[in-house]
Design brief:
mainly alpha, 9 helices, 71% helix, elongated, hydrolase, Phosphatidic acid phosphatase type 2/haloperoxidase domain-containing protein, membrane, transmembrane, PAP2/HPO
């Protein structure tokens, strides 16, 4: 009788590791950061003129109320989309949920960085510098302008969703841009504030999210690769 010998488990080829992020998302995110950074640099010299044209024009138009609503509450829509995605991945795909949780840490990191930068740069709000009527009331003194916190969080949440579900881009990308643009239209930020905020949110969330996820996966692999005492007694090793 012929018996078939199986190769030892140690010699079997390892199963391919699952890529945490779809290939197209990371290059697109990094290209977006470069484009937004360039936009911020080009907009800065003409910041007051751009602000007066956008914010002043909006305040005099029929879109004033809508711009104010999006500027004030639009971020909640991105939060809702992210929360729904978190619930879906928790129920259907724990690997993607772990990645979304890691990018959540990145979102918090991006917000923290934006707050620190504000305190260091202390750029005055445009509604205190340019004498025009604005849709929203100008924030209190000491609430600095650069970079935009709303835009930072919007960019961070958008890229977090795209890391997990790239097909959501027709929803989350316009939402993030709308929130950022509305902050200028409503009169509380310069164009370079929101462009910088979006870039900061995307960049920090990418770096921190991927770093946290990689660290957690490495620890998990090490813990599962250790042989249990029962297995050692069975094999005599």
């Amino acid at each position: 009788m012929t018996t078939t010998r199986h190769a030892p488990a140690a010699n079997r080829p390892a199963s391919p590791t699952r890529s945490p992020v779809p290939r197209v998302v990371l290059p697109a995110a990094l290209s977006t950061v470069l484009g937004l950074t360039l936009t911020a640099l080009l907009a800065w010299p003409a910041r007051e003129r751009l602000f007066e044209g956008v914010a002043g024009g909006t305040a005099r138009s029929s879109l004033a109320g809508f711009a104010g609503l999006v500027a004030d509450k639009g971020l909640l829509m991105l939060v809702a989309v992210t929360a729904c995605l978190a619930l879906f991945t928790w129920l259907r795909d724990r690997f993607r949920f772990a990645l979304l949780a890691a990018t959540g840490v990145g979102t918090l990191g991006a917000y923290a960085v934006s707050e620190v930068v504000k305190l260091v740069v202390t750029e005055e709000r445009p509604c205190r510098v340019v004498d025009i009527a604005t849709v929203l009331t100008c924030p209190a003194p000491g609430d600095w302008s650069w970079p935009s916190n709303h835009s930072t969080i919007a960019g961070a949440l958008a890229v977090a969703c795209l890391f997990v579900a790239p097909r959501l881009w027709p929803a989350v990308v316009p939402l993030a841009l709308a929130v950022a643009g509305a902050r200028v239209a409503a009169g509380v930020h310069y164009v370079h504030d929101v462009a910088s905020g979006l870039a900061l949110g995307v960049l920090v969330t990418c770096l921190v999210g991927l770093g946290v996820h990689a660290g957690v996966q490495r620890v998990t692999r090490r813990s599962t690769s250790r042989r249990s005492p029962e297995a050692r007694r069975t094999t005599g090793r």
